[in-house]
């Protein structure tokens, strides 16, 4: 057994198999990918990584799994599969996580698809799985929702979300993601079709979970400055890759990199190295060099229009973008953003009260009924040198 000390959960115990997995190069890559992408530009303490989050998710899956095993719901073999699935759930994260991923979603390559590819075809992981007779197919079934306990890893109230809410809260200093994890784990269970079953006495803990999630989305994950820099980095990354290594926008090349073992060095530091190389390359267009310098010097784009609502957005962003262009703001200096973000699926929550299942609408009072199901965000960012002009145009 090996013990790793985690700043959130304390000592986390790993067996030989799990230790070999985290010691593999493809897992060590997660040490070099920040958990909250560019949040450190606003919250300097947000330097934690996907590596520590993966260990935290693993720890919580062990706690949830042990509870279910003691209740006779799962077997020891299924508990081991849950542990491995949670440990590996983020193995396919892109550099800078969700800042870069949208470029690959256009190519039908998500972090989940890349995760499955790594689990199937990374050479060192394959050797470890063969040595310990791990059934990789059963791990992939959990990810694909083909097991009754898949919801532990991926659902509205899964161990992934439990860990990142409390971990991101700790490192950003935003005291909105604190959870009563012990109470939450003790009073929830998982049903079929992704349903969350909560004992009536645990409603307060579940309410706290969703309220924390809502607040963290507003204060951290979709913070206007953090999001602006993520959009800006994505814009810069696309241009840099097209200049230096266009093969990175070929999904076949990415999958080949998994087989060859070179993907293990594709991390946040790799992105920075390409930015520095582009700055010193005489073939790099001057405008791109200026954008890279603005990004590195924290002179990124700023918001000139924002609408955040729990209802539908009322302002068509494309009309505002066209107006900015008509009045002389270059299109490549305008960065519109629009997204509908799910907070809670109330139809999936079942409350166990006095031996009977109730839906939220059957309860006389709970804050869960008042939490909005979605946040809609519409924003327009422009390069900082056009900010005053853009604001005057839109006003």
Automatic annotation (TrEMBL):
Q: Which SUPFAM superfamilies match?
A: HD-domain/PDEase-like
Pfam families from the entry? HD, HD_assoc_2
Q: Which domain of life is it from?
A: Archaea
Q: Where is the HD/PDEase domain?
A: 46-174
Task: List all membrane-crossing ranges.
Answer: none
Q: What is this protein called?
A: HD domain-containing protein
The terms under GO molecular function for this entry are: dGTPase activity
Q: Which GO terms describe its biological process?
A: dGTP catabolic process
């Amino acid at each position: 057994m090996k013990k790793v000390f985690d700043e959130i959960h304390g000592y986390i115990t790993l067996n030989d198999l799990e230790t070999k997995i985290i010691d593999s190069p493809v897992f060590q890559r997660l040490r070099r990918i920040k958990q909250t992408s560019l949040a450190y530009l606003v919250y300097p303490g947000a330097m934690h990584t996907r590596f520590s989050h993966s260990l935290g998710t693993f720890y919580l899956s062990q706690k949830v799994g042990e509870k279910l095993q003691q209740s006779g719901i799962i077997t020891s073999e299924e508990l081991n599969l849950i542990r491995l699935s949670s440990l590996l759930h983020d193995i396919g994260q892109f550099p800078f996580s969700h800042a870069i991923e949208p470029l690959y979603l256009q190519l039908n390559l998500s972090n989940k698809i890349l995760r499955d590819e790594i689990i199937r075809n990374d050479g060192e992981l394959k050797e470890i799985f063969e040595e310990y007779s791990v059934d990789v197919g059963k791990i992939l079934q959990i990810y694909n929702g083909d097991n009754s306990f898949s919801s532990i890893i991926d659902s509205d109230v899964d161990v992934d979300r439990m860990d990142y809410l409390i971990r991101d809260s700790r490192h950003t200093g935003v005291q909105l993601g604190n959870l009563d994890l012990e109470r939450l784990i003790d009073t929830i269970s998982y049903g079929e079709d992704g349903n969350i079953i909560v004992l009536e006495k645990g409603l307060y803990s579940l309410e706290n979970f969703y309220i924390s999630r809502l607040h963290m989305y507003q204060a951290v994950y979709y913070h206007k400055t953090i999001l602006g820099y993520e959009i800006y980095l994505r814009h810069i990354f696309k241009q840099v890759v097209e200049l230096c290594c266009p093969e990175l926008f070929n999904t076949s090349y990415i999958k080949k990199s998994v087989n060859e073992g070179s993907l293990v060095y594709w991390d946040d530091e790799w992105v920075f190295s390409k930015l520095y190389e582009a700055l010193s390359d005489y073939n790099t267009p001057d405008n791109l060099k200026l954008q890279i310098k603005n990004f590195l010097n924290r002179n990124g784009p700023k918001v000139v229009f924002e609408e955040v609502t729990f209802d539908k957005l009322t302002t068509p962003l494309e009309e505002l973008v066209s107006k900015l262009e008509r009045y002389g703001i270059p299109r490549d200096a305008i960065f519109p953003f629009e997204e509908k973000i799910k907070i809670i699926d109330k139809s999936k929550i079942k409350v166990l009260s006095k031996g009977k299942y109730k839906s939220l609408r059957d309860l006389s009072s709970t804050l869960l009924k008042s939490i909005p199901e979605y946040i809609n965000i519409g924003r327009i960012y422009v390069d900082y040198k056009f900010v005053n002009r853009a604001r005057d145009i839109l006003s």
